[in-house]
């Protein structure tokens, strides 16, 4: 781990080396060893967590539960050495139990003591990982209400299509933004509210509006940052508008200076962010909301209600 740490690599590549090289090197030793799982947890897991926190810049107060999850649940799909140890022990116990050789089967029976039976409960290595991740999902859902708020909201409201795209997008981010996303997801960024909780600040007040500076407040709640929120919204909208494939598109109307305004078609009362008019006279309406995860469903319903009548009217003019 120390050698990996010294290499000038992106955090995701260091984690990849750990998963594919370090754990692979340990597998044989974990399979034949007589060491107890407790020793692995106390000694090797602590080293693993130390380096993972360093690479991802997660403070000691930040949970690592989210990074253990699969990538489609916004995790990094990694496991600590102790879980790999359980997998290896499960493999050897299963091999002994299912062996056609009676002597080997007898060896399995004779070693069914309190230490080994904990591994006999698993039928496969996949079941070991599934059980491990279920524990951490439960931890995020029910025990870490603050650090698990992102996971809880995304689990309830996000689309599977978005979840599958996220790992690819995240892996292409530069180191500082990659680490920012990890800390955002587990709410361990140094907001004033967190700093006060960690004993590093005497106040949780936002320095601009004096309200409690939580992650929600920073991302979408501070009235002093409305211009910044608008800039963020328009930057994303501009990226979408400029990167749409043009093959079947006749005109893009966007609420941006460099595009025809959607009000040309819809009027000023209900002006969505983006309209896409195709060559076969179909009109697609896109409304962008850059909000906080806990508000996803409310934002969707609000936008749907706002433009419902407008969509009905436009269906009379364009192909459905």
Describe the structure.
By secondary structure, the chain is mostly helical. It folds into 3 domains: 144 residues, no CATH class; 32 residues, no CATH class; 92 residues, no CATH class. It is built from 15 helices and 3 strands. Strands 1-2-3 form a 3-stranded antiparallel β-sheet, with helices on both faces. Strand 2 and strand 3 form a beta hairpin. Helix 4 packs antiparallel against helix 7.
Short description:
InterPro entries: RVT-Znf (IPR026960). By secondary structure, the chain is mainly α.
Give the fraction of residues assigned to helices: 55-70%
User: How far from one another are the termini?
Assistant: 58 Å
* Secondary structural class: mainly alpha
Tell me the series of helices and strands, N- to C-terminal.
HHHHHHHHHHHHHEHEEH
Given the structure, what is the number of helices? 15
The number of domains? 3
> How much strand content do the residues show?
under 5%
Spatial order of the strands forming the largest sheet: 1-2-3
Give me the count of strands.
Answer: 3
Largest sheet composition: 3 strands, antiparallel
**Which regions contain 5 or more consecutive residues with pLDDT less than 50?**
none
Give the overall shape, derived from the CA principal axes. Answer: elongated
Rg (CA only): 26 Å
- Mean pLDDT, all residues: 88
InterPro entries: RVT-Znf
Pfam family, one: zf-RVT
């Amino acid at each position: 781990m120390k050698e990996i740490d010294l290499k000038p690599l992106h955090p995701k590549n260091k984690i990849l080396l750990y998963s594919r090289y370090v754990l692979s090197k340990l597998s044989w030793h974990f399979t034949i060893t007589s060491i107890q799982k407790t020793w692995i947890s106390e000694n090797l897991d602590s080293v693993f967590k130390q380096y993972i926190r360093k690479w991802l810049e997660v403070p000691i107060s930040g949970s690592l539960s989210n990074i253990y999850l699969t990538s489609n649940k916004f995790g990094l799909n990694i496991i600590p050495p102790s879980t790999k140890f359980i997998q290896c022990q499960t493999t050897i116990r299963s091999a002994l139990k299912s062996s056609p050789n009676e002597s080997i089967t007898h060896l399995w029976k004779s070693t069914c003591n309190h230490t080994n039976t904990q591994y006999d409960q698993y039928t496969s290595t996949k079941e070991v990982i599934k059980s491990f991740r279920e524990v951490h999902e439960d931890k995020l859902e029910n025990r870490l209400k603050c650090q698990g708020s992102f996971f809880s909201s995304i689990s309830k409201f996000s689309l599977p299509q978005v979840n599958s795209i996220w790992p690819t997008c995240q892996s292409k981010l530069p180191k500082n933004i990659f680490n920012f996303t990890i800390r955002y997801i587990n709410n361990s960024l140094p907001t004033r509210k967190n700093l006060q909780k960690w004993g590093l600040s005497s106040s949780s007040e936002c320095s601009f509006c004096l309200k409690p500076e939580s992650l929600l407040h920073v991302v979408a709640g501070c009235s002093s940052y409305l211009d910044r929120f608008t800039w963020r919204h328009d930057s994303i909208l501009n990226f979408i508008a400029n990167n749409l494939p043009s093959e079947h598109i006749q005109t893009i109307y966007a609420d941006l200076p460099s595009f025809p305004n959607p009000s040309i078609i819809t009027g000023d009362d209900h002006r969505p962010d983006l309209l896409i008019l195709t060559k076969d006279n179909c009109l697609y309406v896109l409304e962008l909301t850059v909000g906080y995860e806990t508000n996803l469903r409310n934002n969707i319903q609000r936008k749907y209600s706002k433009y419902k009548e407008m969509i009905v009217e436009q269906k009379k003019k364009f192909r459905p």
